[in-house]
Automatic annotation (TrEMBL):
Protein's UniProt keywords contain Secreted: no
Primary role: Cadherins are calcium-dependent cell adhesion proteins. They preferentially interact with themselves in a homophilic manner in connecting cells; cadherins may thus contribute to the sorting of heterogeneous cell types.
The protein, known as: Cadherin-12
Topology with respect to the bilayer: Single-pass type I membrane protein
Gene3D superfamilies found in the cross-reference section: Cadherins, TCF3-CBD (Catenin binding domain)
Name of the gene this protein is made from: Cdh12
Length: 718
């Protein structure tokens, strides 16, 4: 309520209201100044309002007092329940945890005013989930309420939590949320075999490394806590079997380490231990986290192939051994209970040459061809053994046959077979050291001896000195050798080996006498060099010869090019009956060119040309030039040309075909003027082509063409 001291109660004062919510939330009585709320208020929406009031004179409309400001505060009531903004909750706690183990803390919020009354005071409680869990009423912390909760018994728990305001008193508002709690696994259970004995049946033909059986221990734990490691207790099967863990199924897989043999042992018994990999020290008091079981394996008898007595057979035979000689045998047995006979044969896929044969019943191997160690020193092939009762069951073994050497080849001198000796050599000088080679192979190594042949022992020129280490030296036995007397010396050397039977050969050494300097360096070994000057070396002679050859090649090429050029300047084809234009292979340079052709006669007709021979043809015989009368003064050029044409026509030495000799000189200012036929007064109509018919069948078509033109000429009068 608002009231002014100036208000006498006679209705002269008017009250006005402005500010937050004026006219919408609050209204004022203009006469009495009473303020009323015109709608419901919500503290959580707006906790207070700031308003301004003023007293105004009704008549003058002027304020009687200054405007005053006041605040209307909304008083809270408990109209909001607590709410869990983060719910529902998910939590976990390890199994077997002690009482009071922390699980989770929940929190509820109340929109009411926490400073006024108990409207916002929240208290927590468990509506569902006891007696397993408890909650602190004030903090909302959830803890375990029972000891040793086992995940293997119950894993999931759902707890219903309530939050109530007004301190939990009667009439307070409440809100709820759900907490899903999971017990996580710990390794609190050892593995256990469901039975104490496992029986397995394994065929004796099982391959090494193959799985022959599976056993399983049960562990109720989960994840890595249920990981099991299997092992075989040392004993009966420790050497033949091994066990591994299947990571997906946690089963123990028993594998074979060595082959089984029913005939040797029919049953095996051993123990298998299963233990956890990841142990928890808190549960050691429960007992050992492992278990054992017995595995009994019965070996099943299978029909097996024969077994050879050796994995590989190695035999030896001398080369050139007669065909059919037995060199060894292989043996295979059927070890099954009902023993069967065995048959042998060679695997021909690997031994296509069939150098050997085998007895199918006894297994003896014999030669089938003559063997040559120098051709093939070792043979490697396979022999197959099969059971008579079941030929499909076979086994294979490798046989290696080494061919032993027989001393059949004599030793020979290794290269070189030719050596040289200086003319100024001295007695006892070693000019060559020789060695020997032998195609035979001796296991202990060959020993060779060297000596001169008997027919050469009396010649004092050279001797052979055996060094007793498979080498020998060729030594001189006289002072100096002459190339003029004898250039080549032949020295027969006998070489023997030490094998049985002893083989020997005579090898001829060629010794060439050479000219040497004082130091023994060879200068020349050719006979021709004897007759050459002493100061001219072999290199100089070769250089001189090369120069001579190069000069000869140059001369021959020059002559050939000259001949070819002369041939190209003349056309000598007898088949060509056309007019020939003689090509002089030169080009004129105008009036200043006086070398290409002598045109003085055209420029000056008074020039007298005597003793001129034709240049367009090559005369067969030399003849004297004809005497021609000198040209008269002021003779016309046409008469001069006609005179020359007449001379060529009656010349008996001229070739039988027309030859065009061009004497023309054409150009501006020429004395001879133009020689072109364009300005000729002779027309085509004046020509008579009847002579073409006399030229033979080769000109028949040409004669017919010009004959038709002449016959159809309208201007010609017949």
């Amino acid at each position: 309520k608002l009231h002014s001291d100036l208000d006498k109660g006679v209705g002269t004062v008017k009250y006005t209201l402005s500010g937050d919510g004026a006219g919408t939330v609050f209204t004022i009585d203009e006469t009495t100044g009473d303020i009323h709320a015109i709608r419901s208020l919500d503290r959580e929406e707006k906790p207070f309002y700031t308003l301004r009031a003023q007293a105004v004179d009704v008549d003058t409309k002027k304020p009687l007092e200054p405007e005053s400001e006041f605040i209307i505060k909304v008083q809270d009531i408990n109209d909001n329940e607590p709410k869990f903004l983060d719910g529902p909750y998910v939590a976990s706690v390890p199994e077997m945890s002690p009482v009071g183990a922390y699980v989770l803390q929940v929190k509820a919020t109340d929109a009411d005013d926490p400073t006024y009354g108990n409207s916002a005071r929240v208290v927590y409680s468990i509506l569902q989930g006891q007696p397993y869990f408890s909650i602190d009423p004030k903090t909302g912390v959830i803890r375990t309420a029972l000891p040793n909760m086992d995940r293997e018994v119950k894993e999931q728990y759902q707890v219903l939590i309530q939050a109530k305001d007004m301190g939990g008193q009667l009439g307070g508002l409440a809100g709820t949320t759900t907490v899903n709690i999971t017990l996580t696994d710990v390794n609190d259970n050892p593995p256990r075999f469901p039975k104490s004995i496992f029986h397995l049946k394994v065929p004796e033909s099982s391959h090494v490394g193959s799985a022959i059986g599976r056993i399983r221990a049960v562990d109720p734990d989960f994840g890595k806590n249920a990981a099991i490691e299997y092992s075989i207790v040392p004993g009966d099967g420790g050497n033949l079997f091994e066990i591994t863990t299947d990571e997906n199924t946690q089963e123990g897989v028993i594998k074979l380490k060595k082959p089984l043999d029913f005939e040797t042992k029919k049953a095996y018994t051993f123990k298998v231990e299963a233990s956890n990999l990841h142990l928890d020290h808190r549960f050691h008091s429960v007992g050992p986290f492992k278990d054992t079981a017995t595995v009994k394996i019965n070996v099943l008898d299978m029909d097996e192939p024969p077994v050879f007595s050796k994995p590989v057979y190695t035999m030896e035979v001398y080369e050139d051994t007669p065909v059919g000689t037995i060199i060894g045998a292989v043996t295979a047995q059927d070890l099954d209970a009902g023993s069967s006979s065995v048959r042998y044969f060679i695997d021909w896929k690997n031994d296509g040459n069939s150098y050997f044969t085998i007895d199918a019943t006894e297994g003896t191997i014999a030669t089938n061809e003559l063997l040559d160690r120098e051709s093939t020193a070792q043979y490697n092939f396979s022999i197959i053994a099969s059971k008579v009762s079941n030929p499909l069951l076979t086994s294979k073994v490798n046989v290696i046959i080494n061919v032993l050497d027989v001393n059949e080849f004599p030793p020979e001198i290794s290269v070189p077979y030719e050596t040289s000796v200086c003319e100024n050599a001295k007695p006892g000088q070693v000019i060559q050291t020789i060695t020997a080679v032998d195609k035979d192979l001796s296991p202990s190594g060959q020993r060779f001896s060297f000596r001169l042949s008997p027919e050469a022992s009396n010649k004092p020129n050279f001797t052979v000195h055996d060094y007793r280490n498979n080498t020998a030296g060729i030594e001189t036995r006289r002072h100096g050798y002459s190339r003029r007397q004898q250039e080549l010396h032949l020295l027969p050397v006998v070489i023997e080996d030490s094998s049985y039977p002893v083989q020997s050969s005579t090898n001829t050494m060629t010794i060439r006498v050479c000219r040497c300097d004082a130091d023994g360096t060879i200068l020349s070994c050719n006979v021709e060099a004897i007759f050459l000057p002493v100061g001219l070396s072999t290199g100089a002679l070769i250089a001189i010869l090369l120069c001579i050859v190069i000069l000869l090649v140059i001369v021959v090429l020059y002559v050939a090019l000259r001949r070819q050029k002369k041939k190209d300047t003349l056309m000598t084809s007898k088949e060509d009956i056309r007019d020939n234009v003689i090509h002089y292979d030169d080009e004129g340079g105008g009036e200043e060119d006086t070398q290409a052709f002598d045109i003085g006669a055209l420029r000056n007709p008074k020039v007298i040309e005597d003793n001129k021979i034709r240049r367009d043809i090559k005369p067969d015989t030399l003849r004297f030039p004809r005497q021609r009368p000198p040209a008269e003064d002021n003779t016309d050029i046409r008469d001069f040309i006609n005179q020359r044409l007449h001379e060529n026509d009656v010349d008996p030495a001229a070739p039988p075909y027309d030859s065009l000799a061009t004497y023309a000189y054409e150009g501006n200012g020429s004395v001879a003027e133009s020689l072109s036929s364009i300005d000729s007064l002779t027309t085509e109509a004046d020509q008579d082509y009847d002579y073409l018919s006399d030229w033979g069948p080769r000109f028949k078509i040409l004669a017919d063409m010009f004959g038709e033109e002449e016959s159809y000429n309208p201007d010609k009068v017949t």
